Amino acid sequence: MAGRARGSARVLLAQLLALALALLALDHGDWDAAALLPPLPPREEAARVARFVAHLCDWGALATISTVQAVRGRPFANVFSLSDGPPGAGSGVPYFYLSPLQLSVGDLQENPYASLTMSLAQTDFCRKHGFDPQSPLCAHIMLSGSVTKVNETEMDFAKHSLFTRHPEMKTWPSDHNWFVAKLNITNIWVLDYYGGAKIVTPAEYYNVTFQ
Ligand SMILES: *[C@@H]1O[C@H](CO)[C@@H](O)[C@H](O)[C@H]1NC(C)=O
Ligand SMILES: *[C@@H]1O[C@H](CO)[C@@H](O)[C@H](O)[C@H]1NC(C)=O
Ligand SMILES: *[C@@H]1O[C@H](CO)[C@@H](O)[C@H](O)[C@H]1NC(C)=O
């Protein structure tokens, strides 16, 4: 009994220490998602897993339909920094900071439909557990929808979400005409276990709340 009490006191102490470290990291405006990785939600709760992945990833691969002459009409994937909210306050909405000078943004001006992939392979999670990035155990999500500009109502939250997790965005060259955009999600696939991708609706996805 005494041993168990000591054990749980140690666990509590470790949790408090982790929390203190997390708060310390927040104070400095940078967030090492990998170092502070919270546990994966139960895999049968696919909507929660999707929100978890969307919140932990700082970037994703966005596929558009190319307008570049050489590959016109073909799928084109590119890396984008993103954020769905400040650490611990994810909204599920992937926000981007885009410039018309980017190849993919040219595509989006002609056809706003895009799909976005994010994977826990981008964190320490899969490496730590020895999961290959293509393994479904290395949880990843595919979001499909259209990329739209963020309006004034959402602007403060979107900018705060991006700039807290990507501080250098503030210093990106102003002559690139950066604007804040988001993926308006219409379809969600979650690969977090064997047996094929699970489908989650946007309503289920946005309904998830984290404590
Ligand atoms: C801005 O976008 C949000 C989220 O899509 C929406 O709920 C709100 O009605 C929009 N506001 C305006 C002024 O268009
Ligand atoms: C988001 O997508 C839905 C479904 O395609 C569409 O009805 C809605 O107008 C879109 N919202 C914005 C802000 O583009
Ligand atoms: C939203 O969450 C509540 C509480 O967990 C649940 O009862 C409800 O079925 C959920 N709705 C959707 C659309 O997922």
UniProtKB/TrEMBL annotation:
Keywords: Glycoprotein, Secreted, Signal
GO cellular component: endosome; extracellular space; lysosome; transcription regulator complex
Key word Glycoprotein present: yes
Signal peptide range in chain numbering: 1-22
Xref: InterPro entries: CREG, CREG_beta-barrel, Split_barrel_FMN-bd
Similarity comment: family membership: Belongs to the CREG family.
SUPFAM superfamilies, A to Z: FMN-binding split barrel
Taxonomic classification: Eukaryota, Metazoa, Chordata, Craniata, Vertebrata
GO BP: autophagy; endocytosis; lysosomal lumen acidification; regulation of DNA-templated transcription
Sequence ranges assigned to domain CREG-like beta-barrel in this UniProt record: 41-207
Segments forming a coiled coil: none
Organism name: Loxodonta africana (African elephant)
Protein name: Cellular repressor of E1A stimulateds 1
Location of the protein in the cell: Secreted
